Amino acid sequence: MKNVPDYQDVLNAADRIKVVAIKTPLLQNQQLNNITGANIFIKPECLQRTGSFKFRGAYNAISMMKNAKRKYGVVACSSGNHAQGVAEAARLLDIKATIVMPHDSPVIKLERTRRSGADVITYDRNIQDRDAIASNICQDTGATYIHPFDNHNVIAGQGTTGLEIVSQLQEHSKGKTIKLLRALVCTGGGGLTSGLALALDHHFKGIKIHSVEPEGFDDYRRSLNAGERVGNLDKSGSICDALLTGSPGEIGFKINHKLLAEGLAVSDEQALKAVKFAFHELKLVVEPGGAVALAALLNSGNRWSGENIVCIISGGNIDPQMMTRALAL
Known about the structure:
By secondary structure, this protein is of the alpha/beta class. It is 44% helix and 13% strand. The model has no long low-confidence stretch (mean pLDDT 96).
C-alpha cells in the first residue's frame, strides 16, 4: 500500500522548503467580492518560484533523496509546471534532471525547463506513453522518478500552500480567527488539492474544498461522484494543459475522497475570461489551467454569498499568444 502523508508531513515539508520557496501573498480584490457577494482570498501561486506551486513539492521530494541515489539524477513527466519545478529544484541541489514533456507543451515551459539545466525529451501525448518513456530512462540510468502528484513527499510539499494561507489569514485579521468555509483548487492529478486539504481541514474542520477542472477532463469530479478513481478518455483537447491528467493519483485520492466536497468544472472560454480578469483586476499573469478555480468563482453568481473563501491560482506560465487570445475576449 502506498504511503499516505498526514498533517505532520506537511509541517516537516514547510521546514525543508522555507529557505528556497517564496511565501506567496494572500490577496483580496473588491471587484471579485462584489461579483460573488463573498469574502474572497486569492493565493497566487503564479508568483511562486518557476511560476507555479509545483516547486514546493518537487524540492521537498528531491531534497529527501539519499546521497547514494542523488548521483544518478531524477526523472519527471510533465506538460511544464512540474517539469520546471523539478528542473529548478534539481539545479539548486546539484542533481541531474531529465524531463519527459509533451511536444505541444507551451514553448515558454519547454524553454524554462531547459534553462534550469534539465535534459528535455519530448513525446506525442496522443500516441505515446510518457510513463513508459520515463520508466525506461530510470531503468537505464538508475535515476529516481519524481511523480508529479502520486508521491507522498510531493503532496506534503504542496500542502505548505495551505499552511501559509492559515498564517496569512491570522495576519489579515490581526490575530483573530477567520473561519474559512470554502476553498477552490485547480486540480489535475490531485497533488496540490490533497496537500491543501490536509492543511486546511486540520485548521478549519468541515471546510468545503472543491476540485476545479476543465470540462471534458473532469476525472476528479466524476471520481468523487463514483467513490472510486475513473479516468479521462481523451488525452488532449483543452487549453488547460497543466490539468490534463489521465486519472486521479492513488495517494491523493485516498485523502480527497474523504475531505473534498463537490467537484466543479469550467469551459476553456471561462478559463480564458478568468485569465483576462486576473490580468486586468488582480494584476496577475495566469495560465488557463491555473485560472480554473478563479473561473469557477466568477461563474458562481451569489451561490456562496457571505462566505469566507480561498481561491488558489496555481500557475502563471502562459505563452504570449494564449494571453493575447484571452485579452481579446
